Amino acid sequence: MSCTLKSKDILENIVDGYVVGEDGKAGIRGVVVRREKDLLANSFLSGLASGFGSGLSESFQRDMVSPLGVVTETRSSDVFKKGAAEGVSNSFDRLSKYYIERAEQFQPVIQISAGREVDVVFKKGFHLQEGSQPLQLAQDEWRRS
User: Fold this and answer.
1) Is 117 found in the same domain as 74?
2) pLDDT band at residue 129, thresholds of 50, 70 and 90?
């Protein structure tokens, strides 16, 4: 819990409790907002571009069957094209993995409209302290916290 004093000092303490909404039940109703949708879409598009680059790279080589087996050959005129296509494929593959890793880091957010009145229920007592002295807050200061 964070409390801002009139002196603009901020006191923070870990508390054990919960919030009760207007319906008298533990918790507050809200709308779940998931923000990773754009990252997943970018990952999908990057994956498509990576696949396109990989396919383009494969188009610049030929498979030839010989008595020794299958031999893959790239014409000297296509070496730079094949390299560029592989570079595009690798970079988009890395970008796709980056977007997936970022999406995994996001947590859903519960959006609650402002101005709602709730009750805070503390399961254990605690002291707010400023320096080494326990701080006694007035009733109206507790409500603003």
Assistant:
1) no
2) low
